[in-house]
Specification:
InterPro entries: ABC_transp_permease. It comes from Streptomyces diastatochromogenes. It is found in: Cell membrane. It is a multi-pass membrane protein. With 358 residues, the protein is mainly alpha-helical. The protein has one domain: ABC transporter involved in vitamin B12 uptake, BtuC (Orthogonal Bundle). It is built from 16 helices and no strands.
Length: 358
């Protein structure tokens, strides 16, 4: 029988682990960075229009980070995130502007197309046994060509005014596109942490051999992961189309680095078996703060990419050093150490990590 004291002890243990997690660190960095920018701008950064603009352009980084995380959870990489997002945005814009397709139908078609591309990518990886890095690299090249075929050198801006109005809508200074990204993050967290299918994804990424012995098809999980990644990219493309004054062949061109940076900085392991939804959202917030600081202080954009890349490399190296330390400690004690997992509730959701899904 669980007593009140036992529950209190468990609660304190959970809070203690959270206080030492990557998520807590990112939360503190986010709050400190936001306050610092507000002070540096003499309070202008705290005003309604600035808050609205900041959150409006935060939606897409959150969604592409979650899309990459969906692939990473089974040990896969999706290099086609940016190309797929740009292709989907241009496809949605062309359907509305050139073909007169109603906005709801065009948006549904764009999201469906992105999801199908993810599905086909996953099936191709499983059927050919070619490394996902190579397959998504080829997919990226194909989609870049298709995006150029759709948009050419023009900017497509004659699409539905209703969609643009939704992209600018911000009740209580909370943009609808930002709320859409948060809703997608909440649904993804519920799927990964609570649903049986989500648990199977983590099992297949954390220990493919044990998953197969347990009756879990790792091939199906790879297909599901890429399909889910494509779906999230499709939603990101819709938020971008709604937020931007027009779409062209440059849309999605700068999505690849942020898509990796958000989940990696957020605490997701590159070799699979873990997710960190809240950490990914906070990491996207931090990167948006860096971009806002660049605009505030008129910094060279190249320094922003340099800083984000440096943080990503530092995070990967730090994780590898920590893993090596755990392995040495485990050998010294005559046992196999548990692999590191993402922060927060991910630790409960992720099984022991023995490499990415193949």
């Amino acid at each position: 029988m669980i007593t009140i004291n036992d529950r209190g002890a468990r609660t304190r243990a959970v809070l203690r682990r959270f206080s030492r997690s990557t998520t807590m660190t990112l939360l503190c960095v986010t709050l400190a960075g936001y306050l610092a920018l507000g002070v540096a701008s003499s309070g202008e950064f705290f005003q309604g229009p600035s808050v609205r603009t900041f959150l409006q352009y935060l939606a897409t980084p959150i969604l592409i980070g979650l899309a990459q995380m969906a692939a990473l959870c089974v040990g896969q990489l999706n290099l086609a995130v940016g190309a797929l997002g740009g292709f989907t945005a241009c496809l949605t814009g062309v359907l509305m502007a050139d073909d007169g397709v109603p906005a709801p139908v065009a948006v549904a078609a764009g999201v469906l197309a992105a999801t199908l591309v993810g599905l086909v990518t996953g099936v191709f990886i499983v059927a050919t046994r070619i490394n996902g890095f190579i397959v998504t690299l080829g997919t990226m090249t194909i989609l870049l060509g298709a995006q150029y075929r759709l948009a050419g050198t023009r900017t497509i801006d004659g699409y539905s005014p209703t969609l643009k109005d939704l992209g600018r809508a911000a009740p209580l200074n909370l943009p609808l596109v930002f709320l859409t990204a948060l809703a997608a993050a909440a649904l993804l967290a519920a799927f990964m942490y609570r649903a049986t299918a989500g648990r199977r994804l983590l099992a297949a990424g954390g220990n493919p051999l044990a998953a197969r012995l347990s009756g879990i098809s790792t091939d199906r999980q790879i297909v599901l992961a890429h399909t889910l990644s494509g779906l999230l990219v499709g939603v990101a493309a819709v938020t971008a189309t709604a937020s931007l004054p027009g779409v062209n062949r440059s849309v999605g061109g700068d999505w690849l680095l942020p898509s990796f940076a958000a989940p990696i900085i957020g605490g997701v392991a590159l070799n699979g078996g873990s997710v960190a939804v809240f950490g990914t959202v906070l990491a996207a917030f931090v990167m948006r703060l860096i971009d806002a600081a660049r605009a505030q202080f008129s910094l060279d954009p190249s320094w922003v990419n340099f800083l984000i890349g440096l943080v990503v490399l530092g995070t990967v190296v730090g994780g590898r050093i920590h893993q090596t330390h755990l392995e040495k400690k485990g050998k010294a004690q005559g046992r196999t150490p548990p692999a590191p997992v993402g922060p927060g509730p991910t630790a409960e959701a992720a099984p022991p990590n023995a490499g990415g899904a193949q």
